[in-house]
What does this fold into?
Amino acid sequence: MSSIVLAAGLLMLGAVLAVTLPRNGLRAAASVVTQLAACMQVGPSLLRVLRTRAPLEGILHWSYPVEDINLRIDALSAFFLAWSLPMTLLGTIYAIGYLKPYFASGRNGGPQFALLNMTSLAFLVVYSAQNALVFLIGWEIAAVAAWLMVIWDYRNQRIRFAGFNYLISTHIGLFVLVAAFMLMYAQTGSMDFGTFGAVLSKPGRLRGVAFLLLGVSFALKSAFFPFHTWLPRAHSAAPAHVSALMSGVIHKAGLFAFLRFLLLLGRPEEWMGWTVLVFGAASAFFGVLYTAAQRDMKRLLGYSSTENVGIAAMGFGVGCLGMTWGLPLLVTAGFAGGLLHLLNHGIFKCLLFYAAGAVYRATHTVDLERLGGLLRRLPSAGWLFLVGGIAIAALPPLNGFVSELVIYSGLLSGAAPSPPARAALVAAAALLAFVGAVSALSIVRAFGIAFLGSPRDASVHVSSPTPLSMNGPMVLHACAAALIGLFPLLGLAAARAPTALFFVPGQPTNDGHLVALLSPIQIATQAFAGLVVIMCAIGWAAGRRARAHVTWGCGYTATNSRMQYTASSFSAQLARIFEPFLPQLRRERLPHEIFPQERSHVATHHVDAVERRMFEVLGQGEEIISKTSERIPEQPRFAFAAGLIVLVVVVGLLLGAGAR
Amino acid sequence: MTALLALHVVVLLALPTFVVGAINRTKALWSGRRGQPLAQLAFDVVRLLRKRAVYSRGTTPVFRLTPWLGLATALAAGLLVPVLGSTAPISFPFDFVAFAYVWGLGRVALILGALDTGSAFEGMGASREATFAALLEPAFFLVAGAMCLLTNKRSFSAVLELRPTGAIDGAAWVASVVALFIVVQVESARMPVDDPTTHLELTMVHEVMVLDHSGPDLAALQAGAAIKLTVGLSLVAALVNPVVGHATPLATAAVNVMLTLALAIAVGTVESLVARLAMRAVPRYVVAGVVAGGIALLATTFGAGGTG
It folds into this structure.
């Protein structure tokens, strides 16, 4: 336990040094060195917890009102800490290269590095605290640090707005969380998680209310649909390392907290599992649809976080149902798949954001419609983006495939007790397949439009090459993606200890079938990777004698790069099919007459459906209602629908009264 | 067992030529022509392999590698499917998920190769391919999941042994066959979704993406597409094969190969008699596959919990 306290001290020391030392180089060094030391300090004890599954516990005496700080690192905390701290360190190293142009113009990087240290510190606090007050302090440090890092470019009004939007959203989540804690404090008179558990595990209405309050708060933190509206703005406004860490690491705290309270809840009720599953499925579905229509690369990656936390939550939902039904098969497949997917998402999402940051640093834009042909001018960022893209589309032989396969194995296991439940889980698997295919579409679109083809906009200049401090972290992330992809059992080994916490006491505990599931996959993916390498080598050798010519223009010789397919045109067909969910704003002045005299133009833009509806309802709610009510007598359809709603409400009330 | 494995590989490499030959011969006969030799695809591939490729100056190594990546995925997927009706060389629980994602990687490779040329035509084809695939993917998983529930098995070759024994299994089986056939039609770019013979770029999906490939790369693409088509048809054949589980593996294999060729003739017949759907109607056809998959899944909820 002393290692945790020492690591926290080191991180605070680094933060202080980062704001007091004179030069940016020294500030960065202070942050990197202290984070590295903190990682080395806690690393061995985390690995020991993961191996032996015996939690580390300790009590730190403090003054009023906290009094004793109970720290406890069980397998779940150890699992999250074991990758959160090193990934933050890699993000800090990346930041040195990414921020260099700002340093050259005299910006002080100290606060940024100090905040990165504080983020690591927040992980230590949130993941180990057993006291609600301490937990909230860590939660708040993470939120405020993320906000301050987002507004690095604070002179830009758009970025200040995005930051403010994030700050408000995250605090709405905080209020809901505080409400949940107050509710439990009122019952127990204590802020200790252990005593919360006694109330939470008692069946009753309080348990359901606490579950919903906590669920909403953590969903806001992890940007679940429909609580995701702050996310695309914040991610496109923040510096690349901040977007990467927020999406890949910081917001996993929401799901961690959900799992932490699920453990306190004991055996959940059946509706809880279904709620988590449906919420996850909705997030995955809407998140991935939004990625398909974005033209800003970082916004696209931001929406893809909503999608991926949704996929992980689908796993957790399956696991909850397994706990309710007492089926260890579903518990292991759901929780191991979900946990592994969180780790995998951290790995490939940081990689993709870092590559997008390299694009921004070199071209000063991440607008897909203005990019093109970057693979030849930014080869390292391009190839690494492709690796991340294949991983995020869950394609073999990389890591995304492994975790999704484990989740599929839970959904398709047919272990549920009733036929409708079994069919519902299979339908969820089909939805996951749809999500996978659309995420392949979006990432291929992002890579293909930005890195392949020829440059679309002559005004975009590619400046300096990507420095080593940026390439290094990216290469490490790509290696991690390949490692878990080629050695799935290794990934499973990391997720096994935390998964074992979710076995309901008194039921058979067995996760052997996951080893049985992944052992053949391991051999098959390695063989597949070998086959791919051999075939590509043959192809490369066969193409050596080739001649060079221009792309065939189908007989038209005056082609130019503006004629290429664009990002919008690539996703136009899908966007049209899903138009109700992907509202498109269109501003246009179309040409009139045969010889138009005035200039015409058309501009299209996909907006967030939830945010748009929210503003619509907030701004013109009364108008909408009065308009609709006016239409009721005119249109039989509306009248019928209104009548039906009234009938349902009345019958529901009657039944509810009868049930009392 | 090793003999069967060797036979599987031989069939996987040799049968695609004749499947494509059978389709083309059928189409020729329907239109009153003699048609090309049955092994024309093999001749084409050999001829192309001897040629030099031509690369656009705008392309990157992605363009050179993706046809071969696509061929690798087609081969790997072929090893996961019981092409011979009863067993696949590589079989493990939930291998059909791996199969779908390996096919997905092949699709991604094809799309990236198309986008690398910077040609608007190829971008258009790539966009269509990606969109249809997204709509199609649930159909395959609904069918596979329904078959899992009905047979209570988890691997590809085992779930394909589903045979109707009652009204409910029967409905699920018919829906599965229909859905799988649509999946194969869309994935291997056949009528009525895509026209593999037209050279009108605006109407094509798959063919337009390979416009710029030449020489050995084109050979790899054509071989990959033919293998994908054969594997898909043999999948449907294995689901309708009447002797699976009742005859020796060799006899099952013979029947399955015959059924695959018969399905190829059926594909050729459909292609001769049916016009290509308008591009905006294709999504509806794809969704019909999803609906069929949904029916198969719904049927499982009535079967008193299936056999599980």
Notes: Chain A touches chain B through 82 residues (CB under 8 Å). Residues 220 and 228 of chain A are 7 Å apart (CA to CA).
